[in-house]
């Protein structure tokens, strides 16, 4: 049995191939998780004996179902889920390609629904679970060009809040972390002056660091957080 903060826990992280998702998966591994399952559209990028990677497109419901069938060959339980996978197209609504808008709905909203749904079925057996969604400050700040992305991230909090009520009797909590801007491939798609202007207007006017994110994840995932559910925490002072 491993030792550490997450000893005895099996964790599923979506979008684990790079960026925030990879950092989250590595955090659980570095803190003793028995197994970390990674879902991503591409091949795995983490080399660790306790890491198991599956190529899953969370925006495709059939792919998610097949991914869970495959992971059940590795483990019969999941205690913690981090719904991190997301896509972003930042563009004015009148010129947003419908396909890009649909992709954001599929990956950013339907994906977490499917992953949470399937994971909760496994959590029910052990009467313990933590579902953590990675949201965005866009849900609160509603920046120009992010209509569909912001709507999906706002919907993610609502999704968690409803599931929190549905899963409460199973001792499964559902919460959302609204992250600030952080250096990533996704952020690189956006005009830097636009990002800098948003950051400058925050009560804590700086970009997020990995540790800011991991700190809240540890809080939501903790044994002592059994009564913390249906909550959204925004970084940087966003409200």
TrEMBL record:
Q: Which domain of life is it from?
A: Bacteria
Q: Which GO terms describe its biological process?
A: monocarboxylic acid metabolic process
For this protein, the record's SUPFAM superfamilies field holds: NAD(P)-binding Rossmann-fold domains
- Name the Gene3D superfamilies for this protein: NAD(P)-binding Rossmann-like Domain
Pfam families recorded = adh_short
Q: Identify its protein family.
A: Belongs to the short-chain dehydrogenases/reductases (SDR) family.
Task: From the Swiss-Prot or TrEMBL record, give the protein name.
Answer: SDR family NAD(P)-dependent oxidoreductase
